[in-house]
Amino acid sequence: MTQRAGQLPDLETTSLGIELGSTTIKACLIGPDHAPVATGSHLWENELVDGLWTYSLEAVWAGVQGAFAALGDEVERRYGQRPDTFGAIGVSAMMHGYLAFDADGELLVPFRTWRNTNTAVAAAELSETFGTNIPLRWSVAHLYQAILDDEPHLARIASLTTLAGYVHRALTGEHVLGVGDASGVFPIDPATGTYDQRMLEQLGHLAAAKHPGLKAEGLLPQVLPAGADAGRLTPEGAVLLDPTGTLEAGIPLCPPEGDAGTGMVATNSVATRTGNVSAGTSIFAMVVLENPLETTHHAIDIVTTPAGDPVAMVHCNNGASELDAWAGVFGEFAAALGHPCEPDAVFGALLTAALNGSPDGGGLLAYNYLAGEPITGLDEGRPLFVRTPGSRLDLAGFARAQVYGVFGTLALGMRVLADQGVEIDAMFAHGGLFRTAGVAQRLLAAAIGAPVAVGRTAGEGGAWGIAVLAAYARAAEAESDLTLGTYLAERVFGDIDLEVVEPDAADLAGFRTYLERYEAGLDIERAAVASLAPTADPAATADPAPTAVEGDQ
Fold it and tell me: For the Carbohydrate kinase FGGY N-terminal domain, which residue ranges apply (predicted)?
């Protein structure tokens, strides 16, 4: 799948996807053959404000407008005209978190992102009451924690949503969510395709003591499956996207989705016994379930595909950011020697070196914990690199240990699924980490003990995935019996080649040894959290700007 050259497709046949990732907001325009026509991006950073990770709404719109303008610039540069319409638009963003508004649409408290871990009490109580795992980052956990803390803003709350839902409502006026994104807000009943009514009633009983008039059901967005009509771009929304006034109103939008859902679409992993791994600032695996899990586990969320099918999700708060930071150090060192390198070259050298490292990391350990990690029971993180005196410190071992560190917590969660008998026929990977051919892919195969496939769309990311969902919504309007799975398999991925890597025996054994050491060493991480206070350096309260590895998740 390559970008077009030559003539611009009829804009009425194109689809625009916008995804707000944790470090990059990206816009992707695709043609009727789903190939990218143009892209635009805008870097942004989360902030740690009063102990909570957030983004301001001003930053949201500066980023969305910046990405859209950059896409328009590319279209104009390549094709000689600026886009004034599209066939369809889709919005995606980081899942979960908490955006609470009053009846006038005023944000009541700063946006609380998925990265926050202050909801432990609420999540534990909800998990016990509902009989299913409610992770700390889910929107209902944030809501119930606010109820437990008796936060003053609850007296005025009229609605709550996710980041994708907020942007979509600003563009269309519709308070809706795609079912995949909604499944990270509140548990979904697979029989009805919307929020579980029993659990909503249970939440009402829990909340009654402090806020008897608070009805969660009335706050939550309407749930829509992929392909549904989710509204049209209003004149006010058109100006929000394009302040120049060039963009026309009336364009249809597909249901807004989360980054997990767009990752499934971007890797064609919406069928049972398939899954995908998305690596960016966080890292998570999605496995479409053939059968319900036998038991609940704190490491496993049950969410859905954009079509509403149950998915087991292993979500780790910490992904490639620490590897990204180390690559930046090596880039600075090369520049200090008088040999400045592009980030892609630095990552290529670093990741390629990992293939020559000892299969077990040579006694080296890397923890990528910039934030807390619920799967391993840590409320805060301290990035660490640890070795024993007898270990060998060289570039190859260091690089392998760092890549293994990206996959360490994920492997612990995937082991839980394996213990419950979940079988995977194919695992697809996407994100900037997999742009260097064959390295992270091979080591991920060792970490999860399954074949890993990477296609030419691996680097396109969720903006391409939500553009495809927008295109599917147009197709489904004309063909009511067209399923998302059929659309992806036959019309999007039918001619896309995949590179599949089977787990290497030596790597499998080596990673198993590394993971044993990694589990044992978690006590070091806990001691670091207890002993080292968070930095007071304002420059360290936001993630560094992403480079080639971290991608746009």
Answer: 16-241
